[in-house]
Amino acid sequence: MASNIIIYTQDECPPCTFVKNYLSEHDIEYTEKNIKNAQYRNEMINYDAFATPFILLKGEPMYSVDMDKINSTLNIEN
């Protein structure tokens, strides 16, 4: 499922860490792209995203962390 979730992150970003930990706790694979890499930063900007975490959830951009959407899209029950 890693290709279904891409998280653009940066160092020392508590919301980034929260989302990554949450997905890991639910055994959901993801691809992390740290924007200190210029290529990843440019990819994120191409989506008109200027804050992290920026998430591509099954190809759909998520500009802010929406846990309800993450849970429903990935069938996570709490």
TrEMBL record:
PROSITE patterns listed in its UniProt record: GLUTAREDOXIN_2
CDD domains from the UniProt entry: NrdH
Highest taxon listed in the record's lineage: Bacteria
Alphabetical list of SUPFAM superfamilies matching this protein: Thioredoxin-like
Entry-linked Pfam families: Glutaredoxin (PF00462)
Residue span(s) of domain Glutaredoxin: 5-60
InterPro entries tied to this protein: Glutaredoxin, Thioredoxin-like_sf
Protein name, entry field: Glutaredoxin
